[in-house]
């Protein structure tokens, strides 16, 4: 094992079981009982797992949040009494995992395995980042049709484009894609024509197959006929995304409400996965299974939960959603279905035509979080 572990506690006897497991698995250990010591160690050791005993702290979760912001590369595990630990609060505060004092050996080993997997993924990401050029890929997905994926992609793309960013939308709902309809444009050429006419040709000009919308967004439409999708392979999607990365700041991808090989490629190539959900039980159940699938593929760390058409539901609250998914809600979109439907029929992104609405403000807030901007995003 190459990962180093820092143990912080005021009472070493409480974490003896965890300590012994670390020793048995040949982890290199540091110890601290003062906060200053934690920060000294983390400053000088980038690949570090921190086991933070919060039982003696009045501000354990707040302090964890501070550490996660100051040292984002650290893998933070909160330790305490099983009754006191709250996984959702831990995730919100920036922790990666939790362990109780009385955790069994198997549970401790499972967390240690996640630590190793985490750092291996980080190394892979760093290598991929060096290889990839420029553009960031954001994919919207869900296990339910009509959950608002296309609406989100179209409006988010328009907001990002208004920030003087080069934005492309790829419609990978290859059989029945509606992105062109939402923008009120009629494609003459689509991804199908690109595959048939110029795939594999050096220095392909993608712009010939894209539609420039008045909002500044470039649209790569889905095939006009469902059967044309059969000509498009995962390799085509992989290479298309790579080409777009060299041309655009942001590539937003719309997907169908089921997993295909094309969707899996887009998820693997994505920097962020926006998982759209409602608060009804069937959607929550299926999205939970979807998250478990992504976890098996080592993609769960990319998932951002988007609670769409949020309104109060008896017996189900946002906290319920977070508990089911074991992930915090990244953004909430208010329920403005009638207004949005009207804008779709007009072919105009609602966030541009009604910039001061609650819906538009939520999209701008989401955009700000995704691009990491502390400033307000303004519609020009």
UniProtKB/TrEMBL annotation:
<protein>
    <submittedName>
        <fullName>Pilus assembly protein CpaE</fullName>
    </submittedName>
</protein>
<keyword id="KW-0597">Phosphoprotein</keyword>
<feature type="domain" description="Response regulatory">
    <location>
        <begin position="4"/>
        <end position="116"/>
    </location>
</feature>
<dbReference type="GO" id="GO:0000160">
    <property type="term" value="P:phosphorelay signal transduction system"/>
</dbReference>
<dbReference type="InterPro" id="IPR025669">
    <property type="entry name" value="AAA_dom"/>
</dbReference>
<dbReference type="InterPro" id="IPR050625">
    <property type="entry name" value="ParA/MinD_ATPase"/>
</dbReference>
<dbReference type="InterPro" id="IPR001789">
    <property type="entry name" value="Sig_transdc_resp-reg_receiver"/>
</dbReference>
<dbReference type="GO" id="GO:0051782">
    <property type="term" value="P:negative regulation of cell division"/>
</dbReference>
<dbReference type="GO" id="GO:0016887">
    <property type="term" value="F:ATP hydrolysis activity"/>
</dbReference>
<dbReference type="GO" id="GO:0009898">
    <property type="term" value="C:cytoplasmic side of plasma membrane"/>
</dbReference>
<dbReference type="GO" id="GO:0005829">
    <property type="term" value="C:cytosol"/>
</dbReference>
<dbReference type="GO" id="GO:0005524">
    <property type="term" value="F:ATP binding"/>
</dbReference>
<dbReference type="InterPro" id="IPR027417">
    <property type="entry name" value="P-loop_NTPase"/>
</dbReference>
<feature type="modified residue" description="4-aspartylphosphate">
    <location>
        <position position="53"/>
    </location>
</feature>
<dbReference type="Pfam" id="PF13614">
    <property type="entry name" value="AAA_31"/>
</dbReference>
